[in-house]
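_Per-residue structure_
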Amino acid sequence: MRLGNLPKKIKAQLPLILLLTRQELVDRHKGSILGRLWTMLAPLINILVFVLIFSTIMGARLEGFGVEVDQYTYSIYLISGILAWTAFAKSISTITNLFIERAWLITKVRLSLPLLPFSVLLAEGVIYAIGMLFFAVFLILVAFPLTTWWLFLPLIFALQLMFTYALGLVLAVLAVYLKDVREGVAVLLPVWFWLTPIVYVSDIIPASVLPWMQLNPLFQIINAYRELVLYQRMPDLGGLAGVMLLSVILLAVARWLILRTEKDLRDAL
């Protein structure tokens, strides 16, 4: 979409959103000696830890990827899921608290509330892209094939961002009025992590439980990443369509909440 076709409100506030995105990245390592370098170092260190611990020390392996990289199969499986989960979990946690933590800005500047979470999503997108770049370099070094299926990864990430934005916006509004929402998100995210096949394979899930776990949007999203990266095939489009439908419903709920409560929300802050 051309900039000229963007709604006037978005065009007017785009510089502020980009400034907040930059500030989001800077604030994460504020006061540290290395500063912005941590934006690149953190994903690299995480990948190195997964490779060294699970491949070299634990010797964890998986079969069935269709290529001979036995020493690194589990590390590849783990990294492909953990990068996506980290981006999701960090975004949800930050967006849930966003209106409260940015109250000083919201009460002084006529900033569109639905646009504010984009600064978080853009910042996480930068970090995720850096992590995937290091991941790709690692795959090249271990002779794991990078296929044309990687071209579909941005579409999966866009769907992940859509779901994250919709859910995060609903939670951000509710968190202003219900303080328990912030605590609930902090408690439930680790539970959600273990309900998603990130560190374990879905094959070990009992057949009676699997259909229920597949209702988890992150189950479908992370499985899609692995289908494209590891197995080089098309992911389950039905599952992804379900995630998109849920995202649209959440967006409608978020829009309704904003329209219904925006004035009171600004006063509450």
Summary: Residues 3-268 form one domain. The chain has eleven helices and no strands. The radius of gyration is 20 Å. Residues 30 and 36 are 9 Å apart (CA to CA).
